[in-house]
Amino acid sequence: MEEIFDVIVVGGGAAGLTAGIYSSRARLSTLILNEGAIGGQMVLTDEIANYPGVEKTHGYQLANTMKKQAKEFGCKIKSNLKIKDYGLEGDIKRITLEDGREFRSRSVILAPGGRPRPLNLPGEEQFKGSGISYCATCDGEFFSGKEVIVVGGGNSALEEAVALTTHAEKVTIVHQFDHFQAFKHAVEQAESNQKIQFILESELRSFQGNGVLQEVSMEHLPSGKTTTMNIDGVFIFAGYIPNTSDLEGIIQLNERKEILVDQEMKTSLPGVFAAGDCIQKRYRQVTTAVADGTIASLSAAEYLRH
Ligand SMILES: Cc1cc2nc3c(=O)[nH]c(=O)nc-3n(C[C@H](O)[C@H](O)[C@H](O)COP(=O)(O)OP(=O)(O)OC[C@H]3O[C@@H](n4cnc5c(N)ncnc54)[C@H](O)[C@@H]3O)c2cc1C
Predict the structure, then answer these.
(1) pLDDT, tens only, 108-125
(2) Phi-psi region of 201 (alpha: psi -120 to 50; beta: other; left: phi over 0)
(3) For a pocket test of ligand 1, which of 33, 248, 286, 294 has the largest count of ligand atoms closer than 8 A to its C-beta?
(4) What is the pTM of this model?
(5) Angle between helices 184-191 and 155-164 (to 10 degrees)
(6) How far is ligand 1, taken at its centre, from the CA of residue 222, in Å?
């Protein structure tokens, strides 16, 4: 007879791994099912300098440590899979994979996180991977000595722009407003970097090239004037989309497709909890994902006790 787990965690990013650490440490049989690479967005992050108690580190290192911790407590982790179907009602929850395997549990913690939001501009799909990237850590080194644009004005955009100067000769930050939404220290770091230039109150309009990206069109918003600029690469940091499309109609989501939870990370279904970037909240950081994962795990344990 197949094992019925106490907890199945969907997603192996910061929130899911933390839920895995707490649940398995509480001696609850725990399985993490993860679609992509373990670590989620942490592995897309060049440097994490704001995780308390850990000196400046690479995102993948922090992810690996969390994974090791979870495994040491006995948490099982299965990666590179695709969930086909959720049966989340009733006392025994069922999750079926596309390859036909089915896993059962008494509680579920949903932590599927999010993914970068595309700009949905002409040429974007065509040059994805051939000049357009959403991850400086993954693709920065392909642009050694080259000129790149970073799109966005939040923390991720400014921090990743600074990280990109390790490789690129010149980084131009293109932002739609005349001010940034990032923390002051991130703005100061970018502004004091000799390799970074700024084009404000402007938006990209299209991407052009011959096989690879060569040029972008850009509109200066106050004047409406459109110009073109030769460029080797564009890195887009324009927000995120929650990975919840396969949960629509199963649990309650808001209009932005974020999972609705209460303070204990309970979703609209008994025994189903959610944590991390996928839930309705304002601030998305590793620390907040970790905190959500902790709460979701403790709430699942409480639910299982009753
Ligand atoms: C470029 C960038 C830089 C950042 N820099 C920082 C920083 O310096 N400091 C900081 O604190 N935060 C930073 N963040 C934010 C931080 O990385 C995230 O808030 C945090 O990692 C979110 O964790 P999560 O576990 O909720 O989601 P995610 O990291 O998105 O993990 C979700 C996991 O679930 C998997 N998954 C998705 N759908 C499914 C499914 N249907 N079934 C199974 N698995 C699924 C995904 O493959 C992924 O592994 C940055 C983010 C980005 C993109």
Answers:
(1) 999 999 998 999 999 999
(2) left
(3) 286
(4) 0.87
(5) 30
(6) 35
